[in-house]
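Pipeline run #58 for the internal structure catalog. This entry was flagged by the ingest filter as a single-chain record with no existing model, so it goes straight to prediction. Upstream metadata was stripped on purpose; only the residue string is passed forward. Reviewer on rotation: M.T. Logging verbosity set to normal.
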Amino acid sequence: QVQLVESGGGVVQAGGSLRLSCAASGRTFSNNVMAWFRQAPGKEREFVAAITWRNNSTYYADSVKGRFAISGDNAKTTVFLQMNSLQPEDTAVYYCAGRNGMGYGVKPYQYEHWGQGTQVTVSS
């Protein structure tokens, strides 16, 4: 079992920054890929970024490239999402996800472990 807990959400003005954290516990050795998804009201849950622990490769949705950065700690139990140049369209609940497979995925069903989410609100 893998448990994920997100933190760091809040309210920020457009152009500002936030850093999200996701702490993993339990059988973390089976958590080979971690990712961030987000879901705005009335919208589908969408992929934001992922990191593969095997080689620390990172992947980003086109909508956040150049603005967001995903990283992890040395223990490979915590993942971060540094969000810069935030815009109102970034407003959503951000979810941390874990995947047992070795490769990353961009669809929610490809991830087995999920946190409860943290709200990010960007005001205009």
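catalog note: The first strand starts at residue 2 and ends at 7.
catalog note: The chain is about 0% helix and 50% strand.
status: ready for reviewer M.T.
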